[in-house]
Amino acid sequence: MGKQFEEFEDGGVVLKYRRHINGRGLVAMTAKADPSAYVASTAYIEADSRVDRDVRIGEGSWIERDAIVGRGAVLGANVRVGAGSVIGPGAKIGSHSRVGAGSTIGAAARIPHDTHLPAGSRVGAPHTGDLRAA
């Protein structure tokens, strides 16, 4: 049986990833990605992150360490979710957006494409109209 993971070197540290069953994206060995989630082939999910059921992660997107992506969230192409961030269930983040480390995106929130949220941002649910940085 062939190798079940892929290795990359980063400054002398060897990082191990496995290919996700749905989309073939790279998932760190200590990350959890539900089998029902779609992780595009050029997307990365870093160590200790969690991707819940029915999530869609587009091409070139990067979920950094310790981030959580809630059930049914949709991330467009080339989205970067900062370390320790939480993306609420059903949230949608447009392509080419950046979510700074430690940010919280509320359930069903909508982030337009090309949006750059600084570290620690809080975006509420759509009914609040709340789009503010902490």
UniProtKB/TrEMBL annotation:
Q: SUPFAM superfamilies from the xrefs?
A: Trimeric LpxA-like enzymes
* Span list, region Disordered: 110-134
Q: Which InterPro entries match?
A: Hexapep, Trimer_LpxA-like_sf
This protein's name = Transferase
- The scientific name of the source species is Naasia aerilata
